[in-house]
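Example 9 (inverse folding). The structure is encoded as follows.
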């Protein structure tokens, strides 16, 4: 019996789980909506703790309402104490009080498989984190992170440095790891051009050829029903990862498309999903980049502004990860959850 058969039969396989702690995007392209769709694409059961409700579409954010910090924390603890999570990711946290409550909830449940996407400003320029809350992010949440995934503006805000080159990205990643995270991934998609120095070895990330939508039989691709965005010649999306000892450079094609809303949410959620499947951090980062690259390349136009990426294509991680029994219903802080005796925990 294959692992797929065991999953479908409900015997001998424990469903991997991941949690997102983030804001709700009414347009569906970012926030918890993007995160949960990404988890599902990886075959991971997603749970959520909502931090804020936004009113937004592809053109921008009109306003948002942050939830009571104690309610956000209670969502987290209720889920972790029952269902558990193989990995957790954070997105929009809105204010200092929520950051403090979320950080305390993570500490109380010994969450270690944590991906922090330090969301500060939306793609349309609307602030999603209160002025003055960066200090709490740096002092309380980042030290708990296994993986930190800032884009260029976020990395500049956190480090206070200007980032224009690959060397600048490396220096920022070193500074971020010094804040306490174990892996810092500085994403270079916001830079118009990055000069690639000779001798630097890049981990090339090519998007997989999609196998179709869940309801398709594969003919749609041959018929041209789904047209991929063209790659921009000579331009690449380069990310720099640092683990405190060495750098890993990821490079993928850069596509000519307006459908880039929620890319940071999608990338960090994909990393969390891969961690929940048992991937080592650098391999999880690579899987996250594969997934978001495919989601951008095959995004279809929606709305009148910056549309969402495509979370609906079938996606298969490139490596085996761990078995369902190993990564199943383990809690994000290690140990088993009620009713999961005999399921091994790999976290912590």
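The amino acid assigned to each position is listed next.
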């Amino acid at each position: 019996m294959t692992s797929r058969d065991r999953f479908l039969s409900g015997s001998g396989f424990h469903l991997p789980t991941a949690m997102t702690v983030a804001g709700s995007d009414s347009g569906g392209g970012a926030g918890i909506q993007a995160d949960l769709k990404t988890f599902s694409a990886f075959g991971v059961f997603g749970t959520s703790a909502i931090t804020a409700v936004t009113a937004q579409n592809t053109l921008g954010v009109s306003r948002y309402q942050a939830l009571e910090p104690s309610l956000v924390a209670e969502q987290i603890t209720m889920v972790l104490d029952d269902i558990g999570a193989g990995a957790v990711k954070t997105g929009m946290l809105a204010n200092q009080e929520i950051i403090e409550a979320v950080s305390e909830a993570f500490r109380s449940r010994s969450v270690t498989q944590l991906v922090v996407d330090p969301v500060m400003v939306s793609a349309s320029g609307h602030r999603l984190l209160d002025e003055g809350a960066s200090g709490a992010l740096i002092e309380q949440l980042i030290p708990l992170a296994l993986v930190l995934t800032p884009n260029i503006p976020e990395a500049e805000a956190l480090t206070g440095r200007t980032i224009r080159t690959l060397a600048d990205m490396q220096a920022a990643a070193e500074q971020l790891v010094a804040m306490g995270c174990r892996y810092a991934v500085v994403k270079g998609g916001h830079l118009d051009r990055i000069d690639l120095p000779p001798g630097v070895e890049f981990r090339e990330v090519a998007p997989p050829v999609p196998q179709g939508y869940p309801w398709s039989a594969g003919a749609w691709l041959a018929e041209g029903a789904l047209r991929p965005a063209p790659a921009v010649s000579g331009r690449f999306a380069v990310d720099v990862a640092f683990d405190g000892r060495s750098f890993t450079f990821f490079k993928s094609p850069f596509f000519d498309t307006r459908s880039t809303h929620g890319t940071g949410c999608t990338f960090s959620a994909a990393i969390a999903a891969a961690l929940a499947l048992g991937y080592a951090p650098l391999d999880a980062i690579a899987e996250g980049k594969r997934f978001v690259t495919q989601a951008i390349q095959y995004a279809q136009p929606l709305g009148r502004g910056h549309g969402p990426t495509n979370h609906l294509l079938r996606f298969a991680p490139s490596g085996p990860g761990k078995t369902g029994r190993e990564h199943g219903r383990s809690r994000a802080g290690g140990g088993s959850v009620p009713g999961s005796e005999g399921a091994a925990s790999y976290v912590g």
